[in-house]
Amino acid sequence: MRFYFDMQREPPQRWIWRCIDPDTDSVLKMSQASFATLYACIKDAELNGYVSPVSQAHLSTA
Q1: SS3 10
Q2: Which of 9, 16, 51, 53 is deepest in the core (most CB within 10 A)?
Q3: pTM, whole model, 2 decimals?
Q4: Whether residue 57 has pLDDT greater than 60
Q5: Averaged over 11-31, what is the pLDDT?
């Protein structure tokens, strides 16, 4: 799964995320809400399976 974070183009410009299947490029999941900050958007994506690159690096050295 790949997660993408995008800012909406239309005002109010808020953040959304999408989870994409890498083989088919199909949208598997997407945020049910939009977020004022990228941080809030990432936190919501984490509740839906997103693992940040920083967390992945930490896990691989533990």
Answers
A1: coil
A2: 16
A3: 0.80
A4: no
A5: 95
Of 55, 53, 8, 54, the C-alpha closest to 35 is: 8
Judged by DSSP in three states, 1 sits in coil
Residues in the chain: 62
Tokens of 58: 């930490």
Q: Which pair of structure tokens corresponds to residue 48?
A: 């839906």
Secondary structure (3-state) at 9: coil
User: In the structure encoding, which two tokens stand for residue 22, read together?
Assistant: 């890498």
DSSP 27-55: EEEE-SS-BSSHHHHHHHHHTTT---HHH
Q: Say yes or no to pLDDT of 42 above 90.
A: yes
